[in-house]
Amino acid sequence: MAELFSPFTLRDVTFKNRIAVSPMSQYRARDGHANGWHTVHLGRFALGGAGLVYAEATAVEADGRRTHGDLGLWKDAQIEDLAPIARFISEEGAVPGIQLGHAGRKASERRPWHGETPVDDEDVSERSEAPWTAIAPSPLPYAEGWPEPLEMSETDIERVIASFGEAAGRAREAGFRIIEVYAAHGFLVHQFLSPIANRRSDRWGGSAENRRRFAVEVARSIRANWPEGYPLAFRLSATDWLEGGIEVEDAVATARALKAAGVDMIDCSTGGIGGKDRPRRMVIEQGFQVPFAEQVREGAGIPSMAVGFLWDAQVCEDLVRAGKADMIALARELLDDPNWPLHAAKTLGANENFALWPVESGWWLMKRERLLSKIGIR
Q1: Which domains does the chain have, with CATH numbers?
Q2: From CA 363, how far away is CA 354, in angstroms rounded?
Q3: Which residue from 4, 39, 99, 291 puts its CA 20 to 30 A from 308's CA?
Q4: Are 191 and 137 in contact (CB under 8 A)?
Q5: Phi then psi for 69, rounded to 5 degrees?
């Protein structure tokens, strides 16, 4: 049997295969509420055969949104719109997951197709979307031309940590069964972890232990509001790709600390702390982030997920079989082909007679395949 399609268990939750749908921001929410777009967007991945379907980055505070279009779980009223989505994903045999995050100094940003720059007067006049003041570990702008965020006080830090826990409780009520914390790509938790964004000299900054304290406390806050049998994951940027930033050894140490705080898996990405430009050290090729997933898995003794520029079924099969990662995550490849898991299974000989397809589709496809084979068309 293909290893990519073998079950995988974290705590009391079993994924039917090793394929995860990476969180993909859609920027279609209103006041943080999900709608029909999110239902169809996420539901089609469950029908397409993925074992884990993550909802996009979901803000734990209104001011923690990256854009006005971000999903949220900062209030109870947002549970109702997410619950049918989680239920549908579960009914179709996938595990519903959600990524919780806070944008920190990246907050109050325009949607990518509006420029991916700070919210400005055009957004106010054309979309009635006003800017707000971002917060961060240190008063350092995200990039040139961005406003200076407010440095978080001790009260701010404790409030945001509590907000992660409260959002986890709402995720539980909505029916999600795994949470991933967005601690990568320059979001708030990553900002605390990276010395490039964190210049504090109190207990939340300075030493590596102090800089990872915020992430550890977020994990503990979530665990206090999350069922014991449900897994908790963190997405980390395993390297900043910049001098003076996080290196993989730091990510391994962070993963160890998070494991001790009740985290079950590390989703290994990279970069994102120093603006939109790609660092010169960062060479993009197929599976370029897999070595980080392997090093974190081995160094911290924790399951890992590989993500980023993965699209070839055999490559994914080989990396899981070799123990380089326990799961793989795809994003844009699935936007192009939501049925990628089912097609990958056929490529790897794990989907005979369309057995993994929903019967409502598989039966017709099997019938067509037999007819086409019989008459020799293809």
Answers
A1: 3-347 (3.20.20.70), 351-378 (no CATH)
A2: 8
A3: 39
A4: yes
A5: -95, 5
Q: In one letter, which amino acid is 287?
A: G
Helix or strand (DSSP H, E) at 40: helix 36-47
Tens of pLDDT along the chain (378 residues)? 799 999 999 999 999 999 999 999 999 999 999 999 999 999 999 999 999 999 999 999 999 999 999 999 999 999 999 999 999 999 999 999 999 999 999 999 999 999 999 999 999 999 999 999 999 999 999 999 999 999 999 999 999 999 999 999 999 999 999 999 999 999 999 999 999 999 999 999 999 999 999 999 999 999 999 999 999 999 999 999 999 999 999 999 999 999 999 999 999 999 999 877 667 677 788 888 999 999 999 999 999 999 999 999 999 999 999 999 999 999 999 999 999 999 999 999 998 889 999 999 999 999 998 988 889 887
Strand residue runs (E) in 227-313: 232-237, 265-269, 304-307
Q: What is the pTM of this model?
A: 0.96
Structure-token pair, residue 268: 């290994």
8 A C-beta contact, residue 309 and residue 334? no
Question: With contact defined as beta carbons under 8 Å apart, do 307 and 269 qualify?
Answer: yes
Q: Do the Cβ atoms of 137 and 187 come closer than 8 Å?
A: no
Count of positions (residues) in the chain: 378
Task: Quickly list DSSP for 269-321.
Answer: E---SS-SSPPTT----TTTTHHHHHHHHHHHT--EEEESS---HHHHHHHHH
Whole-angstrom Cα distance, residue 168 to residue 288?
Answer: 32
**For residue 221, what are its two tokens?**
């806050």
Q: Is-contact 26 56, C-beta < 8 A?
A: yes
The answer to whether the CB of 80 falls within 8 A of the CB of 87 is no
Structure tokens at 301: 């003794």
Strand-strand pairing, 8-10 and 13-15: antiparallel
Neighbours of 286 (CB within 10 A): 11
For tokens 């006049």, what's the residue?
125
> Coil, strand, or helix at residue 218?
helix
DSSP 276: S
